[in-house]
Each structure stands twice: as C-alpha cells, then as structure tokens.
Design brief:
The protein is mostly helical and 501 residues long. It has one domain. The chain contains 24 helices and no strands. The termini are far apart. InterPro entries: GT87, UCP010361. Belongs to the glycosyltransferase 87 family. GO terms for molecular function: hexosyltransferase activity.
Length: 501
C-alpha cells in the first residue's frame, strides 16, 4: 500500500496526465507493454517511476542506434567509401579523429592542421568534448583500431547526454512525465545520435529548459550560454523569451537570463579567443564561407532549377528569410489571443533556423526532438514528422552512395534525393503548422486542454499580460493560471483594467 506521505502528496499535487487517456496512438502502442497506464505507475509509487522508465528506454534505444552502426564499425568507415552509405551507418566521429589531428595529439584551435582545413571548425565547448574523448582513447594499435575506440568512447559520452535529454524533457512538464517517451523512442534520434557531437548542445539546452520551468532564471541563462558555446542555435531561444517577457513585463528576469548566457559563453570562449584568435574564429568563418550543402532548401532550388547559388547569395537569402520569420513570430507572440507557450516558440525559431540554413545535416533533427515534444506532445503528428526525417536519413546516404560508387544502379539519383529533401522540408513545416494552430486555437493544444497554462514557462506560467497588440488586447485576455483545473475558461479576465495596446 502507498505510504501516508505518498497519499498526502497525491492529495495536494495535481495528478499526472495519462497519455493513454486521450491519445489514440499512445493507447494503441501501450498494448505492446500490457495496456494503458495504471494509477500505481501514474503516481510513481513503485520503483518504476516515469523518469526512470524514460531514461532506461532512451539508453536502450541509443544502444540499438549503436548496433545500427555495426557494419561501419566492422570496416565500413575504412574500406571503401560507398559501403558506409549503403548501410546508412556513416559517422563523422571516426573520420575526424585523424582528419582533425586528435590522433597526432594536436591541440584544437592552437595547432594548425595539415591540408585545407587549417583549424578545427567546431565551437569551443564541442572541441573540448572531442579532446576529452581523445584523451580517453588509447594510443596503441593501428589507426583503424584507434578510430573505432574513439567512436566508442564518444558514443558512451553521447549516451550520457541522451539520458540527460530524456530525463530533462520528462521533468520539464511536471504533469506530463510520460511525454519523455516520445524523445526516447524517436527513431530519427536513435539513428543520428552518433553521427556528430550535437547531443552535447541538445543536452545543455534541455537542462536549460528544465531550469527555466523551475524558475531558476540564472541557471537557465548559464546553461544557454554553455549550449551556445557548443553549438550556435541554442542562443536563438532568447529571442522568443524576449518577446514573452515583453508581453508579461518581466524585464528583470530576462536581463538575468541574458547576462547569465553572455557570461557563461564568454567564460568558455574568451581564453581561446585571446590565446588562439585564428583557431577560435574558424567556426564562424567556416560557417559564413561554406557553400550550399546537403539537405538545404538552397540545394533543392539549385538542383531543381539547375542554377548555381553562391555562398554570399545563400547567406543573404538565409538572413532575409530569418528576419521575416522572426518578425512573423513577434507578431504571433504579441497578437495571439492567449500568450504562446515558451516551448512552442522555441521549437518554431529553431525549426526556422533549420529550414533556412545552407546545410541540413541528418543529425540536426536532434535539435528539434525535445523541443517538438514540449511544443506538441501528440504522438500522431510527432510520428508523421519522424517518418519524414527517417526518409531523409535514408535518402541522403543513398544519394551519397550513388554519387561515390560509380555504379548507377547503387543508390538514389538526384531526382530521388530532391524528393527526400522535399519530404524533410514538408514534414518540418507540417509540425510547425500544427504548433501555430495550437497557438491561435488553444483548445487544440493538448497541454492547455488539461488545464495547464505554460508548464515549461517558469515565471511566465500564469503571468498576466501587460502588452498585447491587435484584437487580443480588446479586451485584454491574459493567461490565467488554472492550478491544474481542467476545463477552466481562459477567456475570463478577473483583473479589472486594460493596460494593453
């Protein structure tokens, strides 16, 4: 029987949401493990709490992703360029062990590399991650053996990052811990987790989202700064946060988060920036100068219309499109009838960056998975998007097999690869459209339908609007806090007066 403490906690704390209650896909899938969730598991009175289950499932799926790379581990990375593509098991990690000087003991950013790539082209914190893995890799044996061990060491470190991502996502929405299973079971996550080092930044951002949901503003800022020191995209989250804090008038908290982010980024970057300025700037110059590359809308247009798009042209158009999208998100944030949830805007801004970028590497899907789960925890739409990403994952490797094998019958021709790019773009746009619909029609938002306001919003959760534009400001419809009461009417405005514009 549950203890007295558990019973008292269950009286005062809102009951967790059962995903099998109103999600037909979750209900059908639960039959594979014994049917819909029961009250004992729901309240976490056994050892098998939702967070522990999510973490173990993530580790299991990550291990399956490692098994999927077995054909390359046994020789595909070393013997023949096309076999790593036909088996869809390519990874940057073993190739860059020697190609970026780790095998020779070169220090990233300080020591020049042989060949065209004069310095490591990764942000500083990712370079530290790569270097630590190199320290843990024994130097004996053949270079092929060292590359195998280097990949395995990195896989172990990235597995820890994956577990952090799953746990943080499961805990960010207090009443929806089982949504973390969507991250853990995401097929594109397992397939792309060990292609590159993106999971470090994803884990830091997931931890930042958890800290913000708990009201830990400074910790959120520090983690955002560290995540940006590992990959640029997490810094974009501060844009939507600025808009949301503007709408509710929480400037002090936004300033604290911004100072924490800038401070943490500077702590990591300043030493390298000062001591090795050329090596430090390589990531930024490489990002600016690289040409149109795989998976991007620019490559699709270039191949379809048979025109060449220069890096400068792509940079200009990417910037223009991002400015337009950011302006649109600002309009959505300040005019929506109910303030958007932070996770919704975070997903949209990162998706916009991916869609307008000059390159879409398969592992970039990792950036979106935890944000997508927080933004729209609906299995049907999530799996539709994941199917599109898996199709692109297979498509790019088959295209590379076609272009590197010299055999016209092995792989996917250009026309087929264009279809794969279109599937990726349309799948991401579809999920974005669902999130935007939830913003303007909150009754379709599965999180708010359960009576919550913004469980990942921290200080924004239940906050009153002080600045609203358009029809939503007449009368002002602020985001009332429902205290977990399903069915509460968010349109009611118990606070007299109207300070919106």
């Amino acid at each position: 029987m549950p203890s007295a403490e558990t019973t008292r906690a269950s009286v005062h704390e809102p009951e967790p949401v059962r995903p099998t209650r109103d999600d037909e896909i979750a209900t059908a899938g639960s039959e594979l493990i014994g049917g819909p969730i029961g009250r004992r598991a729901l309240l976490g009175t056994s050892w098998w709490t939702p967070v522990r289950v999510v973490a173990l499932v993530m580790i299991g799926m990550f291990a399956l992703g490692m098994v999927q790379k077995l054909p390359c581990y046994d020789g595909g990375w070393f013997f023949g360029a096309s076999s790593q593509y036909t088996h869809a098991c390519y990874s940057d990690i073993p190739h860059l062990y020697q190609g970026r000087g780790f095998a020779d003991g070169l220090v990233p950013y300080f020591d020049k590399l042989p060949g065209d790539m004069d310095y490591l082209e990764y942000p500083v914190l990712t370079g530290v991650f790569m270097e630590v893995a190199a320290w843990l890799t024994p130097g004996g044996g053949s270079i092929q053996h060292q590359e195998q061990v280097y990949w395995m060491v990195n896989a172990g470190m990235l597995m820890a990052c994956a577990a952090v991502i799953a746990v943080c996502t499961a805990r960010t929405h207090r009443r929806r811990p089982w949504d973390g299973l969507m991250v853990a079971l995401a097929p594109a996550f397992a397939l792309t987790a060990t292609i590159n080092w993106d999971l470090l930044a994803v884990a830091l951002l997931a931890a930042a989202m958890l800290m913000w949901s708990r009201g830990r503003v400074l910790a959120f800022g520090v983690l955002i700064g560290l995540a940006t020191a590992a990959k640029f995209y997490p810094f974009l989250i501060l844009g939507p946060l600025f808009l949301l804090c503007w709408r509710v008038g929480r400037w002090r908290e936004f300033g604290t988060a911004l100072l924490g982010a800038v401070g943490a980024w500077l702590v990591v970057n300043l030493p390298v920036m000062y001591l090795a300025p050329e090596g430090w700037s390589k990531f930024y110059s490489f990002s600016h100068d690289r040409g149109v590359d795989f998976g991007s809308v620019f490559l699709f247009v270039s191949q379809w219309m048979k025109i060449a798009i220069t890096p400068d042209t792509a940079n200009t158009w990417a910037l223009v499109m991002m400015v337009i999208i950011c302006a649109g998100l600002a309009a959505v944030t300040l005019t929506a009838p109910r303030r958007p949830r932070l996770a919704q805007l975070a997903f949209l801004i990162v998706a916009a960056f991916i869609l307008t970028n000059k390159v879409y590497s398969p592992q970039y899907v990792l950036w979106l998975v935890p944000l997508a789960v927080l933004a729209r925890p609906r299995w049907r739409d999530f799996l539709v998007w994941q199917a599109c990403e898996v199709a692109y994952f297979l498509g790019i490797w088959m295209y590379l097999a076609y272009t590197t094998s010299g055999d016209a019958h092995k792989g996917l021709p250009t026309d087929g690869y264009q279809v794969a790019i279109a599937v990726h773009l349309l799948g991401t746009l579809y999920l974005c459209a669902m999130v935007v619909r939830d913003i303007f029609l909150p009754e379709h938002d599965v999180v708010r339908r359960e009576g919550d306001d913004d469980p990942s919003g921290g200080i924004l959760d239940g906050a009153e609007d002080v600045f609203v534009l358009g029809p939503a400001g007449h009368p002002r419809r602020h985001a009332a806090h429902f205290d977990g009461v399903p069915g509460a009417d968010w349109r009611e405005d118990p606070v007299p007066g109207d300070r919106s514009l």
